[in-house]
Structure formats: structure tokens, C-alpha cells
Amino acid sequence: MNDVGLLYVGAVLLVNGLMLLGTVPARSAAVLNLLVGALQCVTPTVLIIQAGADPDAILGASGLYLFGFTYLYVGVANLAGLEPAGIGWFSLFVAGAALVYAGLSFWRSGDPVFGVIWLAWALLWTLFFLVLGLGRAGLTRFTGWVTVLLSQPTCTLPAFLALTGGYRTGAAEALAAAAAAVLLVGAAAYLARDRPAVPGPVRPTALVKEN
């Protein structure tokens, strides 16, 4: 169920990245945010109920709420025309939590590839905080490209690999994932360089999930 949810998180991140780039209208993106946000809240609830008293299973499901709440927040805010500051500051909380989950993936779960993915999400949600929470409109285009470029390799690709039994994790795979993430962030900076965002009020948009 985690992997199924992660698959659709790749879709919503792609759409939210395009929203930040001005390609997809905010109200149009709201529906997908609400659907995926609901999925990312129902899924961990079911997993936690099924986990009984297993703390590792509960921990594994807990991170999904971070992203489920994010997408629900974005969907409601976009439909209601709310100011984005609340989403931005919640994104700061998500970014901090993502760093903790990254550490747990590296040193407790023995899954360094997902540790790298959590670090990529921490960066992404930090950018959401800067753009939506602090109103750094000049970073909007860069954040949009980072979201688009990271959406598939951090969500869709690992989800498909896990669902088909092809997911592998280890030091070599983690190094390759980290190198790919750095290259994609660099590509985002290159794509954003010629057309800086026009200063003005930043509308809600956004965002992870996780596993």
C-alpha cells in the first residue's frame, strides 16, 4: 500500500511543480491534491490499525501523514483562495521531519537509497517553505523545476521498482541516487536561470510522500 501511494505522489508532485511554473492553474491542480492527500491519510491509518503493537510498522506508516496533510492543505487552500503562508510553515515542519526519517533510513532501517530520497524531499519542502512561508517569489521558478525533476525519480520510479520486485538498496545504489539528485537540482537551476519569477503574491501550491 505504501508503494501504491508513492506512485500517485509522483503524479501530484509533477502537477504541483507545473503549477509553480504557471503551466497548471491552481484550482485545476486542487482536485488531484485532495485525492492523493486523502489516499496518503487513509493508507497510514489502515497500516497502523493492522500493525497492532509493532513499533517498526507504526514508524514506517507515520511519515505518510506528513505528505497527506500537505496535499489536503494545498487542495483546500487552492480551492478556497487562502494565503499560502500556513502551507509554507507546515512545510518547514515536514522538512525537519524528513531529515529525521532520512537518518532512520540510513542507520535503523538499513535502506540508504530511501535515506537519499528523504533528503531530497527535505530539500524540496525547504524550498516550499521559502517560497510559500517567507514569500521568496524569486525562487518560485527554481522550486517548480526541482519539483518536476525530482517527482519521478524519488516517487514514481522507486514505487514501480518496489511493486515489481526490482527495488535494490545499498551503498552503491545510494551514491548513484545522490549523484542523480544533485544533477537534477543543477538542471533545475539551469532551466530556471533565464526567466526569474515575477515578484508578487505567491499562491498556494506544492508538494511527498513518502514511504
Broad shape: globular
Class, according to the CATH hierarchy? Mainly Alpha
The class by helix and strand makeup works out as: mainly alpha
Contiguous runs where pLDDT drops below 50 for at least 5 residues:
205-211
> Quick one: how many beta strands?
0
What is the CA-atom radius of gyration, in angstroms?
Answer: 16 Å
Number of helices, counting only DSSP H or I runs of 4 residues or more? 8
Corresponding CATH superfamily: AmiS/UreI transporter
Major pleated sheet = none
Report how far the terminal alpha carbons are from each other.
9 Å
- The CATH topology, please? Serine Threonine Protein Phosphatase 5, Tetratricopeptide repeat
Helix content: over 70%
Query: Based on the structure given, which CATH architecture is correct?
Result: Alpha Horseshoe
What is the total number of structural domains?
1
Strand content: under 5%
Query: What is the arithmetic mean of pLDDT?
Result: 91
Report the order of strands and helices.
Answer: HHHHHHHH
Transmembrane segments: 6-24, 31-51, 57-80, 87-107, 113-135, 142-162, 174-192
Family: Belongs to the AmiS/UreI family.
InterPro entries: AmiSUreI_transpt, AmiSUreI_transpt_sf
Keywords: Cell membrane, Membrane, Transmembrane, Transmembrane helix, Transport
